[in-house]
Design goal:
Elements (H helix, E strand, L loop, with lengths): L9 H13 L3 H15 L4 H13 L3 H10 L5 H13 L3 H13 L4 H9 L6 H13 L3 H13 L6 H14 L2 H11 L8 H13 L3 H10 L5 H13 L3 H22 L5 H7 L1
Helix pairs in contact: 1-2, 1-3, 2-3, 3-4, 3-5, 4-5, 5-6, 5-7, 5-8, 6-8, 8-9, 8-10, 9-10, 10-11, 10-12, 12-13, 12-14, 13-14, 14-15
Keywords: Repeat
GO molecular function: RNA binding
Organism: Crotalaria pallida
Length: 275
């Protein structure tokens, strides 16, 4: 086409880039990027989006990110492509980090969820990114719907998935869904995860189930700052001020004891010499 003096339009270029991505033809896709896109259609949003998608599908997420960052105009498919690209390449945290940026730039999140639900690559990383992102954007119902879909598709949640979904239940004050997720998690190693347990405490306390929250807290083999804080605030928010104060004192004593035990202890022989 170029040899005949004909310039391809955006539809032709997008189609070629899509084929490159689906066939992981990185060399040809890169040549197409350099020889055509940069020269003739540098600012086209559809071509930019196709490049983001092509590089991600070829495993070149760094190049995908560069194209995305340079795009002055992005549409909903562009955002979906970069999130899907991060998830496809195992960069779950980077995928999740895109959601606050979308919220800041006032991207229409209702369109986003429709696009994400049709993502071609769905594993535990990409699904968890969707669940966490939806929860952060105030789309708690969509987050729980995604959890249900991923489980129906046979994708097993991990600890981070359960934790994110439980936070969505807490925001919705949906104890029925929260208990169901608790039941699912109890059949896996996720229930031994301190962050899953902390999310359970927060969910139960937020829904007014303080006794259930304390049962989770009491059964935890190991607790961190988040779990102590979740239980103390859970008591306080539900009017159990005495229990909250009692637990806070217990926590402070444990912290002080831990500091004492970790500090250098005096040598017994030196003590005897001094005496």
């Amino acid at each position: 086409m170029l040899g005949d003096g004909l310039f391809p339009n955006e539809y032709t270029i997008c189609g070629a880039l899509k084929a490159c991505g689906e066939n992981t033809a990185l060399k040809f896709g890169t040549q197409l990027h350099g020889a055509i896109v940069k020269k003739f259609c540098k600012s086209d949003v559809f071509i930019g989006t196709s490049l983001v998608d092509m590089y991600a599908k070829c495993g070149e997420i760094a190049n995908s990110e560069k194209v995305f960052d340079r795009m002055r105009i992005r549409n909903i498919v562009t955002w979906t492509s970069i999130i899907s690209g991060y998830a496809r390449n195992g960069s779950g945290e980077e995928a999740i980090s895109i959601f606050p940026l979308m919220k800041k730039q006032k991207v229409q999140v209702n369109k986003l969820t429709i696009a994400l639900q049709h993502m071609p690559f769905r594993d535990v990383v990409s699904c968890t990114a969707i669940i966490s992102g939806c929860s952060r954007l105030g789309l708690e119902s969509e987050a729980l719907a995604c959890l249900q879909e991923m489980m129906e598709e046979g994708v097993l949640p991990n600890s981070y998935t359960y934790s994110s979904a439980l936070k969505a239940c807490a925001k919705l004050e949906a104890p029925v869904q929260g208990k169901l997720i608790h039941s699912y998690a109890s059949e896996t190693s996720a229930l031994s995860n301190v962050f899953v347990n902390s999310a359970l405490i927060y969910m139960y306390a937020k829904c007014g189930y303080v006794a259930d929250a304390f049962q989770v807290f009491d059964n935890m083999p190991k607790r961190n700052l988040v779990s102590w804080k979740a239980m103390i605030l859970g008591y306080a928010r539900n009017g159990h001020r005495r229990e909250a104060l009692k637990l806070m004192i217990e926590w402070k004593l444990k912290v002080q004891l831990s500091k004492f035990m970790s500090s250098p202890q005096p040598n017994p022989s030196k003590v005897e010499t001094i005496m």
